[in-house]
Amino acid sequence: QVQLVESGGGLVQAGGSLRLSCTASDRTxxxxxxxxxxxxxxxxxxxVSAITWxxxxxxxxxxxxxxxxxxxxxxxxxxxxxxxxxxxxxxxAYYCVASRSGHPRYDYWGQGTQVxxxx
Length: 119
Hints:
With 119 residues, the chain is mainly β. 0% of the residues lie in helices and 50% in strands. The mean pLDDT is 94. The strands form 2 sheets. Strands 2, 4, 5, 6, 9, 10 and 11 form a 7-stranded mixed beta sheet that branches. A hairpin with a 6-residue loop joins strand 4 (33-39) and strand 5. The chain is built from no helices and 11 strands. The termini are far apart. The radius of gyration is 13 Å and the shape is globular.
C-alpha cells in the first residue's frame, strides 16, 4: 500500500508561484506513474498533470499547460508540481496520485493540500 503525503500548499496572490511536493512511502514509487488532481469547492475533481516513472513523458491539462511543471526525484521518492502565474481559478485542494498501470488510471490518492489564489 502506497501512502502519499502532500505539502507546499498555501495562500498566494494572483501571478505568484507555489511548489507542491508529494512524498511516497513505498520504495516502488520509482515504478509508478505519478500525478496531480485538484478539486475546487462545488466542482468535480479534475486532472492536472502526470509524469511517467522514467520522467520522460508528462501530461498536462489545457488549463495549466505552460504555467505548471511536473517533475520527480526518484532518489527522494518525491513528486513536485511547480505552479507559476497562478490564477484565482487555480484555487483548489490538490491531490497527489499514483498509478501502477499508467495514466489515466490511478490507484492511490493522498489527503490533499489546499492552494488558495487571491485576486
